[in-house]
Amino acid sequence: MDEQIGKEVIVTENLKKTYHDNGIPVYAVRGVDLTITRGEFTAIMGPSGSGKTTLLNLISGLDTPTEGKVWLNSKLVSEMTGNELSDFRRDNIGFIFQAYNLIPVLTVEENVEYIMLLQGVPPEERHKRVLKILEEVGLVEMIDRKPPQLSGGQQQRVAVARAMVAKPAIILADEPTANLDSETSGELLDMMRKLNESTGMTFLFSSHDPIVIQRARRVITLTDGKISNDKIKR
Amino acid sequence: MIFKFAYRNILRQKRRTFFTIMTMTVGFTLAAIIIGWTDGSYNLIIEKFTRAYLGHIQIHYQDYLEQPTLYKNIDNYREVGKKLDELQTAESWAPRLYAAGLVSVGEKSTVGQIIGIDPILENKATGFHKQVKKGKTISKTPAKQVVIGKVLAKTLNASIGDTLYIVSQAADGSIANDMYKIIGIVESDDQMKDRMAIYMHLYDAQKLMVLENRVHEIVVMVEDINKVDEVVSQIENSLNNSQLNVLPWMEVNKSFYATMQMDKESNNILSYVVMLIVGIGVLNTVLMAVLERTREFGVLKALGTRPLQIFILIIVEVLIMTIASIVLGAILGTAANYALSHYGIKMPVSYDLAGVTFDTLISEVNLKSIVFPSVLVILAALLVSLFPAVYAAKTEPAKTMRFH
Ligand SMILES: Nc1ncnc2c1ncn2[C@@H]1O[C@H](COP(=O)(O)OP(=O)(O)O)[C@@H](O)[C@H]1O
Ligand SMILES: [Mg+2]
């Protein structure tokens, strides 16, 4: 494991995405070359419409690039399709979305174990891992609740637990605090950073919220679909 | 897990689920009643028709049925009867002799059909005595008595106690004529018989037509009408006589059988219409359930759920509702058919089918009235769910989860 530290988790090469809005081309991502290495805790910063969501979707294979390539764990994600892509995401990427992350009819435990269920992890093992991760995000006592019975911050913490529980190569979070107040946002980011430090898992998230940005260790600034700044703190 | 998930999903919109299940249940129940009623009614007609006269199986000499003549007769019918008695599956049998003749009472005369019967055997097979609505039935020993059809009696202006003259040509070419005492009037469900029939003791008829020991027809009643074809081959094997033609009722009266089949088919169409309505109801529900959950399907797919797994989830949700409906519908439908089989509904107008009068709705509890609607409901539900399920499976997370 340790020898992998410093290894590349994500590599993009001349990544471009052009949408067509009623025939008018929209250049959402315009040639991004990006490398994320193992253990990073990196924020993509930029105003609304700068291409953050598009870039993250291209990295995860939720969207296909118009041009360029994406490697995740040395696999060419940008050329995967169908079940191969589904299974690859299941095994390699943890997602935290802005909102509506959790399946409302499933309990916290069921939401968190969902990916392991898809992977075919045996029940006892699933339960053990769910308990451990819920402990880390401080929600063990909520294990049997359903998402509507949780606060927004708690829901996002469950989403973090779900993203991490299957130990993916990277955790992608598109504006994870967009629906939270600033105090809760800070707490969520502190928790994520702590988990990053304790587990060594790689986090890549987008935001335009200073509370989030200030907690990142590397900040990539996106302007009009291009990286305009990339700095590692300290 | 998928069942638990699907089950919770259908409980999300309890009211909608309830109405969907109710729609399917009502559709199922209607289809079950239509089938139970169709089968019940037609089996009743068939039973009535065959019991009253036709019999379940008929035996004739060669092609008597197609081209009846006095001379195509069965010699020594008692021997045939003995073999029929030995067959467990044959419940009863009765011999008949047919002849046409000019009949008159007083000044009035007309053409009639002389039917020689064995009163005891005929009664066992077709309940002949019960059809004699006025007067007495033919006595066990031959006594030159006749029982005539109701309409014929009217035509001849005859009443019980009158003397009936018959003139015909006997089998040996001689003139057959004799006098008989009318002792009873027959009223059956068969209009033809009411108009034409003159029943007399078989022995009297044989003597009149100079056909001693001979009959034209032997009818056989079987224990189970559904096994009539098997009994036909059993009789054929047992008789081992290529001159004798053994036929089930379906072939004896082809047009009656065809009418029955056609009416059954046309009633099946009703079931299809019911299922079409059910299908539309289910389609509405599944479409709504899928459309309001596109975000969720987006999340599930982003997390690595395969399209097929989403497809299956939707189908399982529909199947759970379908199975609930089938269980409910089977209970309701069977109860309704059971009630209708015990307390038939009297119809406002009676109608005639193949000469049999029919005036009561009678249902029947059978396996088909559960299996057929089940298949229909499942097919209808699955068919309309295919499109929404494929739609859900194809959800593109990047599109459905965009927030602006
Ligand atoms: N499906 C789409 N069709 C057309 N234009 C799109 C689509 N998705 C995104 N865009 C456009 O691409 C640009 C980048 O959007 P996005 O990646 O959502 O930026 P951000 O997440 O930084 O707000 C915007 O101008 C947006 O309107
Ligand atoms: Mg965005």
* Strand and helix order of chain B: HHEEHEEHHEEHEEHEHEEHEHHHHEEHH
Strand content of chain B: 15-25%
Order of helix and strand elements from N to C terminus of chain A: EEEHEEHEHHHEHEHEE
Helix percentage range of chain A: 25-40%
Name the strands of the widest sheet of chain A in spatial order.
6-7-8-3-9-10
Poorly predicted sequence stretches spanning 5 or more consecutive residues of chain B: none
Q: What is the helix tally of chain A? A: 7
| Helix share, percent of chain B | 55-70%
Please report the total strand number of chain B as a whole number: 14
Provide the structure class of chain A. alpha/beta
Read across the widest sheet of chain B, the strand sequence of neighbours is: 3-4-9-6-8-7
- At the fold tier of CATH, the topology name of chain A is Rossmann fold
Number of strands of chain A: 10
Query: What overall geometry of chain A do the principal axes of the alpha carbons give?
Result: globular
Taking the sheet with the most strands of chain B, its summary is: 6 strands, mixed, barrel
What oligomeric state do the depicted chains represent? heterodimer
- What small molecules does this complex bind? adenosine-5'-diphosphate, magnesium ion
- What is the CATH architecture term of chain A? 3-Layer(aba) Sandwich
Principal-axis shape of chain B = elongated
Structure notes:
The complex is a heterodimer of chains A (234) and B (404). Chain A is of the alpha/beta class. Chain A has a single domain (39-61, 85-232), classed as 3-Layer(aba) Sandwich (Rossmann fold). Helices cover 35% and strands 29% of the residues of chain A. Chain A has helices at 52-60, 82-92, 108-119, 123-136, 152-165, 182-199, 210-213; strands at 8-21, 24-37, 41-45, 67-72, 75-76, 93-96, 170-174, 202-207, 218-223, 226-232. Chain A has a six-stranded mixed sheet, sandwiched between helices. Chain A has a four-stranded antiparallel sheet with strand order 2-1-4-5, with helices on one face. In chain A, strand 4 and strand 5 (75-76) form a beta hairpin. In chain A, helix 3 crosses helix 4, helix 3 (108-119) packs parallel to helix 5 (152-165) and helix 5 (152-165) runs parallel beside helix 6. The longest helix of chain A is centred in the C-terminal third of the chain and has 18 residues, at 182-199. The radius of gyration of chain A is 17 Å and the shape is globular. The two termini of chain A are 25 Å apart. The relative contact order of chain A is 0.19. The mean pLDDT of chain A is 93. Chain B is α+β, with helices and mostly antiparallel strands and 404 residues long. Chain B folds into two domains: 2-50 and 257-400, no CATH class; 63-242, no CATH class. Helices cover 55% and strands 23% of the residues of chain B. In chain B, the strands form three sheets. In chain B, strands 3-4-9-6-8-7 form a six-stranded mixed β-barrel. In chain B, strands 2-10 form a two-stranded antiparallel sheet. Chain B has a two-stranded antiparallel sheet with strand order 13-14. In chain B, a hairpin with a 5-residue loop joins strand 7 and strand 8 (175-186). In chain B, helix 1 crosses helix 13, helix 2 packs across helix 13 and helix 2 (14-54) runs antiparallel to helix 14. Chain B is elongated. Chain B starts with a helix and ends with a helix. The mean pLDDT of chain B is 89. The chains are: A alpha/beta (234), B alpha+beta (404). Chain A binds chain B through residues 53, 57, 60, 62-63, 82-83, 86-91, 93, 95, 97-106, 114-115, 117-118, 162, 175, 178, and chain B through 1, 5, 8-9, 11-12, 295-296, 299-309, 396-398, 401-403. The structure holds adenosine-5'-diphosphate and magnesium ion (MG).
